[in-house]
Every structure is written in C-alpha cells, then in structure tokens.
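Our collaborator T.R. sent over the components below with a one-line note: 'Predict the complex.' Nothing else. No constraints on interfaces, no templates requested, no preferences about which chain binds where. So this is a plain run: every listed entity goes in together, and whatever single assembly comes back becomes the starting point for the next discussion.
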Amino acid sequence: MLSKLFAKRTKTENPSRLQGLFPESNYADNISFGGGCPDESLFPSQALQAAYQKAVGLEKSHSFQYHDVKGPAALRDYLANRARQQGIANASADDILLTAGGQQGIDLVAKLFLEAGDEMAVEAPSYVGALAAFDNYEPVYHEIPLEDDGVNLDYFEEQLKQHPAIKLFYTVPDFHNPTGITMSLAKRQRLVALAERYDFVILEDTPYRDLRYHGESLPSIKSFDTEGRVIFLSSFSKILSPAFRLGWLVASPEIKEQLVNLKLAADLEVPYLAAGTVAAYLADNDLDEHIGQLKQVYRVKLDAMAKALKTYLPADAKISQPEGGFFFWVELGDEIDTRQLLLDEAVPKEHLIYVPSASFYPNWDKNNGLRVNFTGSSLSQIDEGAQRLGRILSPAQLQMAI
Amino acid sequence: MLSKLFAKRTKTENPSRLQGLFPESNYADNISFGGGCPDESLFPSQALQAAYQKAVGLEKSHSFQYHDVKGPAALRDYLANRARQQGIANASADDILLTAGGQQGIDLVAKLFLEAGDEMAVEAPSYVGALAAFDNYEPVYHEIPLEDDGVNLDYFEEQLKQHPAIKLFYTVPDFHNPTGITMSLAKRQRLVALAERYDFVILEDTPYRDLRYHGESLPSIKSFDTEGRVIFLSSFSKILSPAFRLGWLVASPEIKEQLVNLKLAADLEVPYLAAGTVAAYLADNDLDEHIGQLKQVYRVKLDAMAKALKTYLPADAKISQPEGGFFFWVELGDEIDTRQLLLDEAVPKEHLIYVPSASFYPNWDKNNGLRVNFTGSSLSQIDEGAQRLGRILSPAQLQMAI
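Returned assembly:
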C-alpha cells in the first residue's frame, strides 16, 4: 500500500539479488557449494582474541566511544605499504579508505558515480553483490562477455565507441566471482589504456587476489594507472576473517575525498573494536604467513574440486579452470534452467546447494550456468557434492527435469 | 579532473556536512561542546568485555565467519519486547532491522523513498547527519519550523496542502538534535493523522528517547500508527556504547522487506562480533538499570549546563530548555555568524568548540545559532566552557568580531 511512495529504483516486481540467494535447507546431510565462505577452521581465532584484548587494553573505556571515519592510522599505514608492495606506487595512508567489508566499497563507488540512466559496463557474469549495489542507482548496463583470459576487450572497445557515455567499469580481475577467471597481463594494460582513451573509471575488486594456488601472480590493474582512474578495492574477509566487516580501497585524492563524505553519510565511522583488533593482529602476526597456510589448504581443495567436477559432470559441461580464489563456474546447454533445477532437484532430492547463474547477470537472462564454492567444504563434501551435482546434470535426469 | 564523471548529486562546490564539522584544536585546555559523545567513564566496560568473551565462546571459530543480514534472534526478540513495552503494539522480532548505528537506518530509509526531485519535509533545524544522508538522494526539502513543543504543525499542514507530493517527514521528537526540544503528545497524535490524510511516511528517530532527566516520558509517534506509516529508529550508541555501531528500526513488513534488500546491498550483514556481544550483554545485565545510572549523572550535567548558560550568556540569547538528551541550542541576533565566530574566536582564542547552526539547515542559510553538548564534558568543563562562550558572545566582543 505504501509501496507507491517508494523511490522508482525499488523494483518490487524483481526478485532480490541477495535476499533468498541461498535457499533454506534443513537436511542433516546437506552440502552447500553456495556461499563464498572461508574454511572457518583456518581462522586464527586465538590470535584474533588476543588482538581484541590488546586493542581494548590500548584505549580502555575509550574503546567503547565514538571514533572517526578514517580508522586507525597504523592499519592504513600497513595497507598503504601492502599496496606499494603490490606495485601501487606512492600509495600513502591518506589514500586508503576503510569500508564495511568490500561490499560497502562497491556501494559507495556506485553512489559517487551513478545517477539514474548513467551508463556503466560490467563483466557478464558479474559478482551478484556488486550488481545488487549498482541496481539501486539505476544505471544502464553494458554487458561485456568474459573469455578464458578475462573480459573481451575488442567487444568492450566497440561498446565504448557506440556508447561514449560509459563512465564506470566494474571488474574482478583475479579469480573472478563467479567464474574463477583471471585477466591476463596484456588485457590489464590495455584496459587502462581504454579507460584513458574513452574516459571512464575502473573499479578493480580484488578480494581473492592473494589467494593464488597455481601459477604466477599478475600486477594489479591499478599498478598501471597514471591518471587516478582505477579504484583498487580489497578486503580482509577472505584472507583473515569476514566477521570484522573490514574492506579497504585505494583511490586518488579527488575520488577518496568524496567517498569519505559518502561513508560519513552512510554509517559515520570505522568501528574501532573491529579495525583496532585487526590493526593489533597485524602488528603481532605475519599476515602473509597466515595467507600461506590458507593457500596450502585451499590448493588441495581446488585440485579436488577440479578433479571431482571433471569426473562426475557430463562431458559437455563447460567447467572453468581457476588458479585461485573461491569458485568454479559451470556452463550447460542453453535449455537448462539451473534455478529450477536447484529448487526442484538439487535442494529437495540431492540436498545440495549451488548458486544458479541468473542473478549474476544484470538482466537475469542467462539461466544455464552455476557457481560452486570449494573453500567452505571438506574434501569428502567436495567429492560427494560433485557426485550429487553430476547426478542432477546427467542427461537422463535432465531429460526428466525438462 | 575525473570529477566530471561524478554523479550530479556529488555537489563538490558545497561544504561537507560532516567532514570537518568539528575543527581541529590541539590546545591542551580545549573544551569541546561539539560532538554528541556519551561520558565514556559511564561505559560498562567490564561487562562489555565479559559479553564479548561470552559471544565468542558461544560460537567459537564460527564467530569469525560470515553471518547474516538479520543478526542474532535473541537481540531482535529483546528489541521487539522493548518496543512493545514502549507502546508499539505487536512488534515482533521479524519487524526489527538491525543497522550500522542509527545513521545507516536513516540512509537506508532515504534510499528507499527518495529519488532526485522527490519532496520531503524536515524540522528546521534538523540533525546534520540525517541531512547528510538525505542530500545524497537529492530531495526537494520543505523546512518546518520548530516551536517549544515541537514542529509547527499548522505550518506543516499548509505546506502539505501546497505540496501534496511530500512523501517523507523526518523528526527527532525526543530531546531533538540539535535543539533539545520534545514534541508534545497532542502534536504526536496530530502528526500521525496528517500522515494518514496527506499520505506520507514518518521517520521517527529516537536515539535520546530513554534519556529523560526531568518530566514524564511521552508515547512514541509510532505507538499511534495504525497504517504502517511510521518507522521507529533507535540506537545503542547513547544508552550503551557507540562503538558497536548498532542501531535498530521497527517498520511494517512491506517497508522492512525492502530495507533488508538495501542493507544487503550496502554491507551484506549485521556483524556478529558486535551484535553477539550486545546480545550477550543484554542477557546478563539490566539495560534499564544502566540507563538509570546514566540519567543520574546526565541530569546533574544538564542542570549545570542550564545554569551556566543562563549565568554567562548575554540576556538576549535564546537558550532551549531540554528535559533530556545531549544538547542545548542557542539562538542569537540575526547579525551573528556562529561559524565565523567559531573559527576566528572560539577555537583560537577561547579554546572552545561548539557546532554552528548552518549545517543543521538544508540550505545552510541560518548562521545565528549554535549547538552545545553537555554529556561529554565534566562539570568543571561545563562551567568553564560556558564562561568562555559567554565571553565570545558578549556584546563588546561581538561588536569587535562583526
């Protein structure tokens, strides 16, 4: 009844991209390849507990007071140093904005650049949470297909010629969500050149960047940026813990200044209890050593999932070959509707959850793909879950389901 | 250079409402009446520390995992019960949305209702953080003047007749920020009737509601709501601690459902380490007993500030008479520019900070008022700070300053 007062952007007729993304399942033997959860047995819980005690000990009752929108200087110094190590020359603590997880970084960048009708480009498919954030600013989307070495830049350049008003491009270049694809070095360089030539800004979202299990790391897109056109976004969620809701971005002063205003209007400040704890953890522990431990475990899981999918899925299923990150992507025949299969077959019959492809596309119009996560499951769950997925996708079963 | 790509809403020519609101001061004897800070000696630090340990003990390593956008059921049950005790009939845990402080509640409601050019009404003056949030959605503001018993509803109804598209009204009815004014019972009832008649939604922002030091508590506006037109917003920031960044709102299912989508797109979830800690605190402690202790201390401070302002300020200064909350409001002759006085006199010469009035008005056009906080200062700072303010505002001094 009151919905007639809602802003136009509130498209009540569309499903929510994030609410209900994972169907409920109460089966005791349910296996979820759905979320993007780290393996929680790898959280350095004791060190994080000690870090919390240290953070509160440092500020005592002031720990529970208001703080500010900047967050601890030591944490921003650490992140600036890390950015410089990753080839982002001259990054300083003043260039760092701490955000409520990477998600808030995406939302604030969207809010800074996008007005209803503004044009932006996204990889197709794209991270569902990013699309959920962008949707609220009502952009006109241009979808750029992914290839095995990243976004199709020939196609993108054609789009830029036809649509010179494109002002923002969102990409997950390292172990892309949902596909696991990594953008090649040559494409990273050419992408920056395109941004300069066609005057747009790149949001480089890199939550999985440090989690490479095979092959050699590539320079960030931001490392080729000379005009302040690239916003580098990352997060502690995958490499330390999602519970602190702590992301960060590196942006030029012109952009960062405005993002600070938007952050203030959104939630006023960086929570000290979270940011102070992470700062204390980083002072007393070696994050890269911890990441090394994660990589050892996740490498085994990635290899197990690759093998299991190849073993159990039909030969014509196209399976991505990620070298890191959290996800595999599976593409099936055009006649397959993976959302219907999820609700009718996977959840009730096989007790398996994955994420169907539609919500990863701006217009919800590709139904024949699915994303599977491997970090949050045990090795036996990976094997068993892939077997179940294989049964769901077997030609005989599909015939019945369609 | 890249600012030409920013959304129209990014008004780089305007000052930021929140960034730089409090000028820096490094004087050792600086007194700040600026922020809205609780007295941090009153935080129940030990109980909060114990609550954190309990929360982490409950979930162990899962504490550091992703959680969800709902937050702990026990906390929402507690808040629903509290809402019912305050006259919000039938409030259930499902009607509660937990937010990143009250600020996020304001921002999400603005995002749900306001499109560029949409019309809304605000009290004049209004909470600066709310205006900062609203600004980003580019509403057309209608300013409704405040009287000693709350917003001028005769004037408001005239505006509603002339501008029937007004869809949202924002109010702080209890110990208003910045003025300290409380809306009368009769006006609360009539306001709901106006909302029904002229078809708008009320955002009732009540962070100070429980902090009444004199007189009798009044029913919330939401308690008169029969059509789901009132969104009741509150926060733990003033009654427990701002560090958890935990607010909550009570809204009808139609509205709450959409706010959940917007919350997901903004930052994905309610942080467990914060919400779980507050839930554990509430399970083991009596919040109302704690609030009773706050009120004892703040009542003495309020009385001291009232007396000091009356003693030291010029006789023609109009000083509000709050019965609770955090703030007094002072209005001076139209020729006074309190921002200029702050920067030229108060900070450098008297080592005193207050908040000048301009940023509390949608159009920054009233310069002759100022807000002083009394909860964050000691009794001696209250007396000394009011003396300093009296010197700055003395007729002789003002003559020189103008």
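Summary for T.R.: DSSP finds twelve helices and 14 strands in chain A.
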